[in-house]
């Protein structure tokens, strides 16, 4: 082998930096040493992996991008090899990088992380919260082991495991006339002011459920966080359409109550699931965290 794991580690970090100097500083080595490591890898690969120009910064070639992605996979495999030895001896040790969709993170993650250190004291969980547009590229780049997302508009190429069932529900001010009903028809909401949750894939899904009924929502505001959406509903500024979540309190961040009602007829029934690229095999550590997640959330009532 004409290269070292250390050289792979250095090159694998390059996609996160726009200049050689920033990469070197982050990796705590000199710029010349990093440049030498890149040159050695290019010599071993037999082609140019990146363009290094002081005026234009650092740019990976298509081969370099492929090389960096595979390098990250090799480093994960090397790390897993060592950690799996401890797992074979009966103790799981090492990191698990978990992604979580932003809209349900605040109500799901506490249940997932609760008691995990007691059950698996050697496992550390690093959490990334974001939208599908942020989590899927992170999975593909090897920056996450798995992610908890909604099974909506997911592209091909992912393993998937269901954690709980969910469906779209109306969130209303308690004094809204429709809050007195046990269920709400989407048609009765079309002319009401909608506080849109602006995040992929939730926004597209909301437009779709209206279009399926031949309706158009009257959007008065778009918010990038569920807590902001709920806060505006709690102040009577409109209603929201959000997916049901286990153990979600019917109260806003300001302590104001909201009324959550199922839609009738039901729309957008789906699942919250864990996904990971079908080119990857979950490590024993990630499998343990996923199993704990299913046990913590799978039996919870959605709503």
Describe the structure.
By secondary structure, the chain is an alpha/beta fold. The chain folds into three domains: 5-65, Winged helix-like DNA-binding domain superfamily/Winged helix DNA-binding domain (Arc Repressor Mutant, subunit A, Orthogonal Bundle), CATH 1.10.10; 92-164 and 272-297, D-Maltodextrin-Binding Protein, domain 2; 168-268, Periplasmic binding protein-like II (D-Maltodextrin-Binding Protein, domain 2). The chain contains eleven helices and twelve strands. The strands form four sheets. It has a five-stranded mixed β-sheet with strand order 4-3-5-12-6. Strands 10-7-11 form a three-stranded antiparallel β-sheet, with helices on one face. Helix 9 links the parallel strand 8 (193-197) and strand 9. 31% of the residues are buried.
What's this, in brief?
The chain has 303 residues and is of the alpha/beta class. The chain is built from eleven helices and twelve strands. Helix content is 40%, strand content 23%.
Q: Keywords, please?
A:
LysR family transcriptional regulator, disordered C terminus, three-stranded antiparallel β-sheet, 3 domains, D-Maltodextrin-Binding Protein, domain 2, five-stranded mixed β-sheet, 40% helix, 12 strands, LysR_HTH_N, alpha/beta, LysR_subst-bd, WH-like_DNA-bd_sf, Arc Repressor Mutant, subunit A, 303 residues, 11 helices
């Amino acid at each position: 082998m004409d290269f070292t794991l250390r050289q792979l580690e250095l090159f694998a970090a390059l996609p996160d930096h726009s200049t050689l100097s920033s990469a070197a500083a982050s990796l705590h080595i000199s710029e010349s040493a990093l440049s030498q490591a890149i040159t050695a890898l290019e010599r071993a690969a037999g082609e140019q992996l990146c363009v290094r120009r002081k005026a234009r910064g650092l740019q990976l070639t298509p081969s370099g991008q492929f090389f960096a992605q595979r390098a990250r996979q090799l480093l994960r495999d090397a790390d897993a090899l060592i950690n799996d030895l401890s797992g074979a001896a009966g103790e799981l040790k090492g990191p698990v990088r978990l992604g979580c969709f932003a809209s349900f993170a605040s109500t799901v993650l506490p249940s997932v992380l609760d008691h995990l250190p007691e059950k698996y004291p050697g496992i550390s969980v690093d959490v990334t919260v974001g939208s599908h547009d942020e989590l899927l590229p992170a999975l593909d780049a090897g920056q996450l082991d798995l992610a908890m997302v909604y099974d909506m508009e997911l592209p091909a190429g992912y393993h998937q495991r269901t954690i709980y069932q969910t469906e779209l529900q109306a969130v209303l001010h308690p004094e809204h006339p429709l809050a007195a009903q046990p269920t709400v028809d989407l048609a009765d909401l079309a002319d009401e002011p909608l506080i849109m949750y602006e995040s992929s894939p939730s926004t597209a899904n909301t437009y779709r459920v209206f279009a399926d009924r031949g309706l158009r929502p009257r959007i008065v505001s778009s918010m990038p966080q569920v807590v902001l959406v709920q806060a505006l509903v709690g102040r009577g500024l409109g209603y929201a359409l959000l997916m049901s979540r286990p153990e979600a309190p019917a109260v806003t961040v300001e302590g104001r109550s909201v009324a959550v009602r199922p839609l009738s007829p039901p729309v957008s029934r789906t699942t919250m699931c864990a996904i990971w690229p079908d080119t990857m095999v979950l490590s024993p550590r990630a499998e343990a965290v996923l199993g704990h997640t299913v046990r913590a959330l799978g039996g919870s009532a959605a709503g």
